[in-house]
UniProtKB/TrEMBL annotation:
Keyword Membrane: yes
Alphabetical UniProt keywords: Membrane, Mitochondrion, Mitochondrion inner membrane, Transit peptide
Protein name as annotated: ATPase synthesis protein 25
Protein's organism: Candida oxycetoniae
Chief site of localization: mitochondrion
Purpose of the protein: Mitochondrial mRNA stabilization factor.
Amino acid sequence: MIPRAVVKEVVKYSSRSLIYRTFTISRCIRNGGQSDTGDEASSIPWYLRTENRSQAENIVELKTYDFPADLPSRVQEILKLLEVKYGLTDFKVFDLSLLPVDHPKSVENQSSERYVIIASGKSEKHIYKASYDLKQHIKNEYGYQSQIEGMVSNSISPTMRRRLAKRARQGPPATHKTYGIEPNTWVRCEIGVDGAVVHILSPERRKELQLEQLYQEKQDQDDVQEQDVTGGARIAADTTLDKESIFYGLRRGFHTSTQKCKCSNASVDAAQHMDMDTDMDLVYNQLLGEENTVNLKGYKEKFDSLFEASPVQLSSIDKRFQFYRALHLVDPSVASLDLVERILLEKYASFELVSQQIDWNLEIVNDTIKYMELLVDTPTIGISSAEKLDKLSRFISKTATFLTDEIHFFAVERFQVLLWALTCEQNTFINASKINSIIELGGENLETTKKTAIISQNEQGTRDVREMFRRINYGKRGAIPLWLREQMLFTYANTRHWKYFWREWTGLRLSISIPSEFLHYFVRVIILLSIINDKIVLRDFFGKFWNNANGVSIIGEFEKNNKLFNSENEKLAFKKALLLIYKNHCNSFWIQDAYEFANRL
């Protein structure tokens, strides 16, 4: 008998021989029946043959950028770090202090930002690595915890891995959608150094969003030409947004790719439609200038006749809402709150608007903000904060039926401000706009309020809204924004809830690291307290924060800021506030040092 080992070797040899013969025959067929064993090329190993060598890549020299020389030294260092060490490209640097005062992104309107840096990364991984390294550099170099949005790690914790394995057979969850937006394509880093904010985007995302247009002056925006966007369509740069609108910071409506198109009807003469709009505007302006409220019904009938004769257009429907809103604010008996709400919702039941190309997501957010402003300003007697919040909830549920994409209301700053305002039973007398007007006029209109009824808050609604703010802002932004903390601070001062006032003031102080910002908020709070004129609160504030060597104080931050205020009007308003407090409490010991300081200004 033949041993098994010999049989195995014969089989192996036979199989190798068969494979070799098959390979030789196939090569002969490719060579036209002639063997290539005699070919000279066959004697050259495959790894030395010329045709198998890869093409040499061209060396691309990195472009060096000349940054403005007047930038602060720390901002210059960060720019060099982003360029040289992290390899970012296509830098754009904007100094917001150079923008006009009426620009929505000027320092006057966006006090938390001073310098905006926009750069591009090569890929999502490159953007994530650069953002993470920048965060660590700021923490180690300056001791500041940067606030980063949009940076998503791909690492999965063991707990999450077990959960994913457990539900793998159920398929992906319904909320597992990216809507065409990949993570780490846009990362925003508020580094806290000289008011600098860094935006790192992928080239495709940067081309789609065009953030540069938000920080340019209007004449620069008008020069922007048409450009390609996702889907192959071409649209002009959107420069038609009202700067007073909350949407000045939103390029294309919550990162959706829906295009905003102007509605038109080919069957209606454009000139006639323009005349109708002009007539409705004329009636609306006459109503605003009317001092006598007797003829309000006449204005209403005239406007309704013009509206009925005009074609159904989105612009005319919006004008009708603005007209009825003005009527309601003047006399709720002529136009009730429910009537104005129905007029605002009419566009969603219009068959004529269905065939028109409208960005309904943007319309829903815009209408929600309008409705919230109406609820805040309504003069209707007997409507409580709980009823207003309930009305808002029903309004959102009605309009949400027409959504074409996901919407994040809390991404809109105006939404959070108005939602917080709805927790009050009455309108707050002292708000951010009043403080801004006092500073702009150098304190000329500053005076102590008379003893009036204290504004009350809806306790349950306040707790719910505050908890939502905490969860959403800490989860998405890492901290509650300063403008929202200030809004809550002013509300607690108006309602005399001093326990929560001091809590928000502590959170506000811990969120600031720049002396100029400290001084800015110190001035605003002192103006606020001078108007309210609560002696106990004034005593505690001046005792803790006027000149404290062991902590943050007004005098300490004033000296750190080279003994300069942020503006001359701010200095004058601060002086007037101190003198007003001294006038009301001249015999108190805690105001004496502040009074001497005011006289030296």
